[in-house]
Amino acid sequence: MRYIEEESVMRNMGKRLTKNKLWKYLFMLAVGIALASLVVLLFRIITQGTEYLTWDFLTSFASRFPEQAGVKAALIGSLWLMLVVAPVSMTLGIGTAIYLEEYAKKNKLNDFIRMNISNLAGVPSIVFGLLGLTIFVRMLDLGKSVLAAGLTMSLLILPVIIVASQEAIRAVPNEQREASFGMGATKWQTIVRVVLPAAIPGILTGSILALSRAIGETAPLVVIGIPVILQFLPDGLLSSFTVLPMQIFDWAKRPQEEFMFVASAGIIVLMVLLIIMNSIAIFIRNKFQKRY
Amino acid sequence: MSASNGQSVQAMIEASKNKKGKVLLEKTMPKLLLLTALISVLTTFGIVFTLIFETYEFFTRIPFMEFITGTQWLPFAGDAKYGILPLILGTLKITAIAVVVAVPLGLAAAIYLSEYASDSARRIIKPVLEVLAGIPTIVYGFFALTFVTPVLQMVMPDVKIFNALSPGIVVGIMILPMITSLSEDAMTSVPKSIREGALGLGATKFEVAIRVVLPAALSGIVASIVLAISRAIGETMIVSLAGGSTPTFDANITGSIQTMTAYIVQVSTGDAGYGTTIYYSIYAVGFTLFVFTLIMNLLAQYISKRFREEY
């Protein structure tokens, strides 16, 4: 007695196997399209921008004439912005993460803080710009300064840093804390001497990635009203300034075709800055991250 | 000997307990850390109060009903009209096009990565997709304006320089990695045993993916799509650069449009003075935008909590 009719199995399976194979290639095609769009994007920008990417471009101020335009003010301005964003966002972010992971008991207030952070992460960046414009620029009267923009950006990337730091702190095994308590250490001593040293690589990696988001972000700064054509470098936290994405935005809007190439050159500078930051983050992750 | 030793240890413990600074530190640090945690709550309150106060000021000048039911948005005209529907429609056009691009591609890529790809392929493809997610939106906007639009114009001659199609497609490319990576996470968390059960019953890989893994991971997938929609609604620079600044109330996607975000940018880069109706209008529009994205985010949280399959 035959349990399997091979003919009918083949008849049924043939179709299904063809379908299986066909869809596999369609799924692969989707990945291919995503990767291809990245390649096209990078290729376009590199071929358009390299001609204008000279030493003069890096060391000149913005100009009405495309061949004289440069990113000096914007590049230095982006670094000034980091000078505010990095310490403010990291202090607040890491502090919040330590509180939520090490101290927070399960109660309404702490649940609310947690829920609030995940919702804050979903607020569009342009809305943070409206917050910055009202609170920092007008109410606190900081003007369109490095400080006002930096505080706005810090709040924008705060949820990202909190979540990354929480994950890093959570990855430190409890045995380590218990061992420290067992040796007579207090809670704060345990946090500072055991938990944080073990979590720092993860925290730094997440923070640098968040900072690289702040460097590329444009919308909140447009709303705050950061100027684009500056002929001087910022000389303090209350000085007015401009940043790379703003400069690129301005160039991209101009009708003259030459400014397209200038914008591409600006984008290359921005992308190189991002690649450097991301490489540092990956380096820290690979070099110092401990697996328990 | 041992007694005196024990005493000295005791003394050491006592001495260390009595160190004022240390006790103070133990007590004040949690409070200080709570303060930093409250900054994020304060930020939310700041956003909500800012939007409410300035929007209230706007509604003292423009009737609420005119704002939410008006089909003309002409703030710069002599006889200014503030009906937000054209801006909402512009935003929805961009979002719809982005979804049409990103959902099939993103899901297909996620299925490929979680069900078909080898470990080594996944290790290469995933970080590259993350690069796509890390590219600043201003770069995408520039790409839409200087590459996608001209290409579209070659294929479809009636596409204008500023249109909904090009930024819509590029927003789709921007949210694609988000859908892929979150959906892939949801699919990989479906246990292997369930897949093996289906394979053992004679299902093909494709049937396992579509009839077993996809339904089991559905809550995570839907949540990822809703989050991506929220990102598309709030996206600013791509639509500002490539979408134009003409708030229209029709179904046309080849001509210039304006989204809520693009309007805020237009006013911010213009010279509308502080205290004018136009100035307050960006808060009313921002408030509407905030409500839209908040609903989307809450929906995503609800879906992923309520419909999660636990294994």
From TrEMBL, chain A:
Transmembrane domains' residue ranges: 25-46, 79-100, 120-140, 146-169, 190-212, 259-284
CDD domains registered for this protein in UniProt: TM_PBP2 (cd06261)
GO terms, biological process: phosphate ion transmembrane transport
GO MF, one annotated term: phosphate transmembrane transporter activity
Principal place of residence: membrane
Gene3D superfamilies, alphabetized: MetI-like
Subcellular location: Cell membrane
Endpoints of the signal sequence: none
Keywords: Cell membrane, Membrane, Transmembrane, Transmembrane helix, Transport
Transport found in the keyword field: yes
Membrane topology: Multi-pass membrane protein
PROSITE patterns: ABC_TM1
One Pfam match: BPD_transp_1
Any single GO CC term annotated in Swiss-Prot or TrEMBL for this entry: plasma membrane
InterPro entries: MetI-like (IPR000515), MetI-like_sf (IPR035906), Phosphate_PstA (IPR005672)
Origin superkingdom: Bacteria
Ranges of residues in domain ABC transmembrane type-1: 75-281
Similarity-based family: Belongs to the binding-protein-dependent transport system permease family. CysTW subfamily.
Name of the protein in question: Phosphate transport system permease protein PstA
Species whose genome carries this gene: Caryophanon tenue
Automatic annotation (TrEMBL), chain B:
SUPFAM superfamilies listed in its UniProt record: MetI-like
Ranges of residues in domain ABC transmembrane type-1: 88-300
Transmembrane segments: 32-53, 94-116, 128-152, 164-187, 208-229, 278-300
Keywords associated with the record: Cell membrane, Membrane, Phosphate transport, Transmembrane, Transmembrane helix, Transport
Topological category with respect to the lipid bilayer: Multi-pass membrane protein
Pfam families: BPD_transp_1
Keyword Mitochondrion on entry: no
GO MF term set: phosphate transmembrane transporter activity
Chief location of this protein within or outside the cell: membrane
Subcellular location: Cell membrane; Membrane
GO cellular component, one term: plasma membrane
Coiled-coil spans in chain: none
InterPro entries xref list: MetI-like, MetI-like_sf, Phosphate_PstC
Summary of the function given for this chain in its UniProt record: Part of the binding-protein-dependent transport system for phosphate; probably responsible for the translocation of the substrate across the membrane.
Similarity-based family: Belongs to the binding-protein-dependent transport system permease family. CysTW subfamily.
PANTHER family reported for this sequence: PHOSPHATE TRANSPORT SYSTEM PERMEASE, PHOSPHATE TRANSPORT SYSTEM PERMEASE PROTEIN
Name used for this protein in its record: Phosphate transport system permease protein
Organism encoding this protein: Caryophanon tenue
Organismal lineage: Bacteria, Bacillati, Bacillota, Bacilli, Bacillales
